[in-house]
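Predict the holo structure. Ligand: magnesium ion.
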Amino acid sequence: MAEKITAVKGMNDLLPTDSGRWETLEETVRQLMRRHAYRNIRTPIVEPTALFVRGLGEVTDIVEKEMYSFEDRLNGEQLTLRPEATAGVVRAVVEHNLLYDGGKRLYYMGPMFRHERPQRGRYRQFHQIGAEALGFAGAEVDAELILLAVSLWQAVGLKDVRLELNSLGQPPERAQHRAALIAYFEQHADQLDEDAKRRLHSNPLRILDTKNPAMQALVEGAPKLIDFLGEASLKHFEMVRQILDANGVGYRINPRLVRGMDYYNLTVFEFITEHLGSQGTICGGGRYDYLIEQVGGKPAPAVGWALGVERVLELLKEQQVALAAPSLDAYAIVPDAAALPQVFQTLHALRASGVAVQMHAGTGEGMGSMKSQFKKADASGASFALIFGEEELARGEVTVKALRDGQGAQRCESLAALAQWAPSLQSPVR
Ligand code: ATP
Ligand code: MG
């Protein structure tokens, strides 16, 4: 036998045992987005490397060490597998001039790629669901997006998620804070790790995002950006808080919350859980009013978030929340292959009326014994077996046998009246 080829490290197959839970989450998201007037956008997985370098910032974890970048062999273009989707969405919005007639509310789902050390909740190919509102400057849209995420946690039954909130102010406010920050870290230069030393003058804010436990105390005492905010920034922040308060959404203001990309300003937030160890951030976002201009568009404000699908599902599992996976209604048992042409007609009609039905597949020699077919029907998880026996068919009927609730109960149904009894096969939760 040839040598086995296995998946790339940190990149996972999603198998049918789990894909039902993913589909249910995705379906819930689609429904919520529709109800909030967010529309789907799908951008390419590969983008020009420059988009991320310019968009995310040169001195960020992602751009410095996590990108899958390569040169196109044909034309030498520098390309990157997207590490996140906001930059691509913004590129698309600019490229297609989507804001010409006002703001746009968008959402996406899909795979992202980061070359990180794989561990629980941290993969090299992972999946994000994100929402972006572009062209809106008001704090009410920040609040709308945060409340949308909260609604999603409620809809899927997620508990124990904490909201952390901060404001990064505007560029001039950040410049003042930056100067104070550099002065502070210079005073304590002996306590900085290598990363921090390197970033001291290029991106000192990023030092606050450090995961090094030895630097926590130092970072704790650093000047806080929130103390440098002017009136307008404070007012924006206040409005977000008022809407959250009025809607019973609890949060903690975390002055050290800075997020991993450079593009944020004003409101930033993260939803965090204690149940996933150090990979506890399940969703993060904020306002990015300068990104559109940075990638060459006409200046326009924007705000958004992204959640990690694997982490959300892991957390649901941890909390033993069963995400109802779509189930099979019926399994068709066909004792004699001669009946197949007619069976197909019936199955087609059942499916057209919304019944999920699996047909028994034979061995190539024949359909197999009734016993083995019933065994397969049981294992399939179907609620009913449909038995297309010779006698029933001769009468223009099929036998419907309950396999779970009221197990064993059996009735004959007329094929001519299929439309009347087909709905009774459908499970209520779908
Ligand atoms: P972290 O601090 O955990 O590295 P991040 O700040 O880099 O997260 P974002 O870029 O804000 O994460 O992405 C949004 C969400 O995507 C995160 O909150 C997380 O749930 C998820 N996520 C990020 N990186 C990964 C990864 N490598 N594997 C799985 N999920 C991830
Ligand atoms: Mg990260």
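The chain has 16 helices and 16 strands. The two ends are 43 Å apart (CA to CA).
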